[in-house]
Specification:
mainly alpha, Serine Threonine Protein Phosphatase 5, Tetratricopeptide repeat
């Protein structure tokens, strides 16, 4: 994942490390084919795909163009779904470009309109939304993920996981100048938490939302519950340590950083964590 993709939640080093080292499901990039064109003012997905296609070798351009034309010609939904999936697989496996991959995965899911496919696509976009800081791409990913979660909720309105996923798209997709969107997401997840206080996914996302919104006291309270129940969740451990550091509680911050370090295999992350611990002492 390139550094320009990193989402620095709240500006903390450790939160940067969470995204950078734990990674996302973005396919690894190739220099020629996978670099998504920068978007100046508005995000045009077709222009992005066209630009990425133009950088492919001629043989691959022909392949992609043929599939794209097949989508237009296809008059049977199953044929269109199959073609969208072929395009998604190409951009994932051969071109290693996430945005076209995400688009075609989303389109296939919308056409299939099953809870499973919609949820998979929605979660895929949500997971990668956290690794993007370009406002227009971020807005597009959040909008697509919201739409997919909403369609899945129509099929299964009682699913707490879907409700939390939808709320999370607001939390991670909220523009810096629109905190109301972030709070909308928190309220969405709070509705699930009030109904089931034992829902760890809800507590985790509320905790992360609290870190982002600066509500550190409540955030660390929620994240501690999750950390105790799921002690191997490195993201939670790092977020919790970050929360205590922001509260000025160095002792607890160090303690949770040390807990996190016990579960880190990445040598670079372990080095950064040890540096952080020494700085706090």
């Amino acid at each position: 994942m390139k550094k320009e993709q990193i989402l620095v939640i709240g500006g903390g080093l450790v939160l940067l490390l969470v995204i950078y080292f734990l990674g996302t499901t973005v396919p690894a990039k190739k220099e020629a084919a996978a670099t998504t064109p920068a978007v100046a003012q508005s995000f045009d997905i077709q222009a992005v795909i066209k630009g990425a296609t133009a950088k492919l070798p001629e043989r691959q351009q022909t392949y992609v163009s043929g599939l794209s034309e097949a989508v237009v010609r296809g008059d049977v939904k199953e044929q269109q779904i199959r073609t969208y999936r072929q395009l998604a697989q190409f951009w994932s496996d051969s071109a290693k470009a996430f945005i076209p991959f995400a688009y075609y995965t989303s389109q296939a899911a919308k056409l299939e309109n099953s809870e499973k496919s919609l949820t998979f696509a929605a979660q895929l976009l949500l997971d990668n939304l956290r690794g993007v800081d370009q406002p227009d791409i971020k807005t597009w990913l959040a909008g697509e993920s919201k739409e997919l979660f909403e369609k899945a909720i129509v099929l299964n309105p009682k699913s707490d996981s879907l409700q939390i996923g939808l709320g999370s798209t607001y939390i991670f997709g909220a523009p810096a100048d629109n905190p109301q969107e972030l709070m909308k997401g928190i309220q969405q997840i709070l509705a699930v938490s009030r109904k089931d206080s034992t829902n760890l996914y809800a507590q985790k996302m509320l905790g992360i939302g609290g870190i982002i919104s600066g509500q550190y006291d409540k955030a660390v309270e929620r994240l501690e519950k999750v950390a105790i129940a799921t002690p191997h969740d490195l993201e939670v451990l790092l977020m919790l340590a970050e929360g205590y550091e922001r509260l000025g509680d160095k002792a607890k911050a160090i303690s949770w950083y040390e807990h996190a370090a016990e579960h880190v295999e990445n040598a670079a992350l372990k080095t950064e964590l040890n540096k952080r611990i020494q700085q706090l002492r």
